[in-house]
Amino acid sequence: MSPQLANVRERIQRDVNRINADGFGVGWYSPEVSDEPAVFKDTSPLWNNYNLGSLADRIRSPAIVAHVRAASRFDPVTRENCHPFQRGCLLWMHNGDVPGRARLTRNVALEADDALLAQIRGNTDSEFAFTLFLVRLGAPPRRDVPVTELAAAMDATVSQITGWHLDSENRRPLELNFCVSTGKVLVATRFALSDKEGPTLHWRESESDSGERFVVIASEPLSEADGWRAVENGEMLTVDANLELAQLRLEATDRLSVASLPEV
């Protein structure tokens, strides 16, 4: 989370080993206006979008989430499929892959009620995982929800998806780097069931020019500055309303000892 959007281009820069050119999204909170965030998405490559540059120079916010997308072969490049996904005060992002799309869709549909299913606008595994998270959260999302409640729902979501995956015959790598925020608190995960290293996750504390403390969380370090810390595979990072951080072991981490998945 950051106090401003001015450097958003740097915070969502593309990975040097992969061109994420299938759209992007930025969500930011203006609590003096609404508990619900503003969201700007587009299917154009991030670096070609003039409007984003204009917004980045002028918007200030206590909490920002941003995502650049590399679509899977199953998903069309549409605005509905761009992250972050929003439900009330919540913003959700995913870096990774859930193999077995039909199984995930069917299982989530069996768990979610009609109201939650009606809110799904795209067809990504990421949005269906978000719907499962909302089922596990239970009560409608509110901005003052304790970070412990978000963490419990996130842990249950990762564990459930992992269980479905292990119960199937699909042995493609499972990658569940999720992030959810209310604008006051945030939870992010790093979890991969694979014989190769999955997507990474890092964080760093810093101060603005005015001396205001903030936290940056990103897939990879966004600068050469000291202080970047890695989240290990099987861990969850929580940030509370006072910007206090904790790295916690996910329940599904015990399943990382399962025999390595064969390369597909």
Spell out the blueprint of helices and strands:
Layout: H1 8-11, E1 24-28, E2 38-42, H2 50-56, E3 64-68, E4 85-87, E5 90-97, H3 101-111, H4 114-118, H5 125-137, H6 147-167, E6 174-181, E7 186-190, E8 192-193, E9 202-207, E10 213-218, E11 229-230, E12 235-239, E13 245-249
Antiparallel strand pairs: 1-2, 1-3, 4-5, 5-6, 6-7, 6-8, 7-12, 9-10, 9-11, 12-13
Helix pairs in contact: 3-5, 5-6
Tell me what you see in this structure.
- The protein is an alpha+beta fold and 264 residues long.
- It has a single domain (8-257), classed as Aminohydrolase, N-terminal nucleophile (Ntn) domain (Glutamine Phosphoribosylpyrophosphate, subunit 1, domain 1, 4-Layer Sandwich), CATH 3.60.20.
- Helices cover 23% and strands 25% of the residues.
- The protein has helices spanning 8-11, 50-56, 101-111, 114-118, 125-137, 147-167; strands at 24-28, 38-42, 64-68, 85-87, 90-97, 174-181, 186-190, 192-193, 202-207, 213-218, 229-230, 235-239, 245-249.
- Strands 4, 5, 6, 7, 8, 12 and 13 form a seven-stranded antiparallel β-sheet that branches. It has a three-stranded antiparallel β-sheet with strand order 2-1-3, with no helix packed on it.
- The model is unreliable at 1-17 and 259-264 (pLDDT under 50).
